[in-house]
Amino acid sequence: MSQSTATLLVCGDDEKAKQVGSELVGKDPGARALNGGKLENARIVESLTALLIGLNMRYKVHSAGIRFTGLSLK
Questions:
Q1: pLDDT tens across 28-51, in order?
Q2: What is the distance between the alpha carbons of residues 38 and 53, in angstroms, rounded to a whole number?
Q3: Contact at 8 Å (CB) between 50 and 26?
Q4: 8 A C-beta contact, residue 34 and residue 9
């Protein structure tokens, strides 16, 4: 069984800031960053976060999430 990796979506209009954020995420061996695109995408990511928190509370679990598949692990 493979080890679970936390994936963080980094959204923003400032490419240098996104790079810095991605590098910080990369310092955690159990996490990786994905480029989430423009800053306007952050509202979608935040909505997904609220949905997942609600699902976890409703079903009394701590592991409901979203899996990104088909992406390289570089």
A1: 999 999 999 999 999 999 999 999
A2: 24
A3: no
A4: yes
